[in-house]
Amino acid sequence: MRFAHHFLVVWILIWPGLLWSGLPEHARGTGEYAHDWQPDPMHEYWDPGRYHQPETGPVEGMFTGAECVECHTALTPGIVKDWRASRHARVDPPVQCPACHGEDHQKLTFPTPQTCGTCHPQRLAQMEEEKKYGFPSHALAMERVVDSKQFADKPKAETLSCLQCHSVATKCDSCHTRHRFDPAEARRPEACITCHSGPPHPDDEAYFSSPHGMRHTKDHKTWDWNKPLRPGNYPVPGCAYCHMRHGNHQVADKGVWKFGIRQINPGTAENRIKRKRWFETCADCHPPDVAFNFFRDLDRERTRAWARLYAVERLLKELRSDGLLRPAAKDRPPDKLDLLARWWPRARIGFYEGQASAFYNVGDIERDYFEMWYFSNTGAFKGMAHGAVTMSQRFHDRLRVEEEAITQRAQRLRDLGTIMRDGEVEPLWTRGTYTRFNQERN
Ligand code: HEC
Ligand code: HEC
Ligand code: HEC
Ligand code: HEC
Ligand code: HEC
Ligand code: HEC
Ligand code: HEC
Ligand code: HEC
Asked: In this predicted model, what pLDDT tens digit does every residue of 292-318 receive, in sequence order?
């Protein structure tokens, strides 16, 4: 009897364990929400180190580089042409197909940064070094994206788009693309803006409307992009000139304000070191006071933006403590990926409460603040950081208009709150069919 009892307990315990460990490694995601999402087949291209599955096609056997080239000249002529034009084909001995893909056609691999790093250890080490500066950075881009709720919570077909940009961490062919691997391509701003564009990071608009960018647009056709990113080779800097100084594959060692979504004290010892690196970069072409004034103005612009953002955050927090945020957190469909939020539903307001990961499933006024903080504010920052003063001012005008609208909305919520306390109005958002439908199905 006792044995049977033990057996039953073990039996009950063992099944979930088996199910858990029985899943093949590629059938679940990675990171914080590993068990909430499954990779899509396209993941093998974006994150080959974790998800690549060898193609078990009709071709079998081990081949030499020459044999790969011979067959693939007929099969994929574009790839072979690019490879032939690359430095890899012209060094002695040449870096052939098997160096990146392996020689066994039934067990082909796609190269990870570590693969490239076997021959380019310094470049890999530089990128890895970004990790010590925290988010955001190229080296941490994949973790960052899969560890966010917006990623884990949605259909993979939709979130695959995230990986087109965030795969910068898991493969080295985003700036110098395969199979040319051409540094001249990587030095141009066009190599960066495939990813560095769009609302929360309008780096393209910021750069191209700055004095540097306008000069670039006018003259870049006459520049020799085969020259390395060193003083004297380019009249004005492109993205890589400033952010990858002297070709250093490290984009995180200078950024003080980073993404722009939280307030920073630029005067800390660590940030002063980063600033000094910026001063050195500008000194390639400008006397010291140009950079000094530039960064003073940038910090002032940030102080101005944060005064407005904090005013609105305070307003929202007051509404929250007075129970006037509608619909209240407890009336919204529960968040599947957040246990804490289920037990203790509470509206998140601002960076430190994690509002960046809670911009769906919120009330109108919180969404309005999100837009203000995540889009208008980052536009104002990126404009100023790149010397696009007019662009920055346009986003500041937007911040002002948005603050006014939110302030008015807050007043309406207060008025409504008073009426409701007097029992005159049904809080229809907590009872309506639409809300009930959502609560039952989410
Ligand atoms: C006899 C012809 C032939 C030879 C030799 C050959 N390939 Fe292929 N290769 C193919 C064909 C056909 C395909 C597409 C179907 C498949 O995957 O089997 C392919 C596909 C590939 C792919 C794409 C796999 C994927 O997952 O998309 C890579 C990479 C590749 N080959 C690399 C190599 C390398 C490296 C060598 C030398 C070690 C080589 N090939 C030798 C015929 C060949
Ligand atoms: C320096 C490394 C390197 C070398 C050398 C190299 N490749 Fe590739 N190859 C790559 C990378 C990087 C990718 C993209 C993998 C990904 O999307 O994750 C790739 C992708 C491919 C693909 C799949 C393309 C697709 O879009 O599905 C084929 C086929 C291929 N390579 C064939 C070759 C052949 C043939 C050679 C030799 C002529 C070769 N490669 C040499 C790095 C290399
Ligand atoms: C087997 C060694 C080896 C591997 C693996 C390898 N490379 Fe290279 N790579 C070289 C050599 C050798 C050169 C030429 C170096 C030189 O000119 O000093 C080179 C040159 C380059 C260049 C400069 C090209 C130019 O036109 O100046 C780039 C960019 C590059 N590699 C990127 C990569 C990337 C990205 C990967 C991984 C997808 C990779 N390499 C994998 C050996 C390798
Ligand atoms: C394939 C897409 C892609 C390309 C190409 C790309 N980046 Fe990025 N970059 C990203 C992503 C994604 C992040 C943010 C990662 C994160 O969430 O941590 C980022 C972050 C950055 C940061 C922020 C670092 C910080 O500390 O705030 C800088 C600077 C940067 N990239 C510069 C560049 C430059 C310069 C180029 C071109 C030479 C470039 N990037 C090309 C995707 C890309
Ligand atoms: C067009 C390219 C692109 C796409 C698509 C993209 N991102 Fe990003 N993402 C970036 C860049 C560039 C940055 C860094 C901006 C900077 O530092 O200024 C970034 C930053 C981030 C950050 C860092 C913010 C922080 O607090 O450090 C997160 C989280 C993020 N992205 C999540 C996502 C998710 C989730 C998706 C898909 C729904 C996505 N991204 C799609 C380019 C992209
Ligand atoms: C954000 C864009 C970007 C990414 C990602 C990137 N590179 Fe580069 N790469 C560049 C730029 C820009 C240059 C030209 C540098 C110069 O002019 O000094 C370059 C040049 C190179 C060169 C040739 C010249 C040299 O100075 O060594 C090699 C090799 C190289 N990269 C390897 C890599 C490897 C390995 C990875 C992945 C760990 C990688 N790159 C990822 C932008 C990038
Ligand atoms: C003249 C030098 C310069 C050029 C050119 C330049 N940037 Fe910047 N960038 C800066 C400065 C300065 C900052 C603010 C740094 C800080 O936060 O302390 C910045 C901020 C950024 C950030 C936010 C992360 C950070 O370090 O603060 C990203 C991402 C970025 N730039 C991308 C780009 C892209 C993409 C391009 C090209 C389209 C580009 N930059 C061109 C100087 C430059
Ligand atoms: C490779 C050289 C180069 C570097 C590096 C460089 N600049 Fe410039 N910068 C120029 C040139 C040239 C102009 C004039 C562009 C025009 O209007 O034709 C300029 C214009 C400017 C202007 C507009 C006002 C003026 O003096 O004409 C400012 C502000 C500025 N740069 C700030 C910076 C800052 C800050 C940095 C460092 C983060 C920097 N620059 C890095 C070359 C450079």
From this structure: 999 999 999 999 999 999 999 999 999
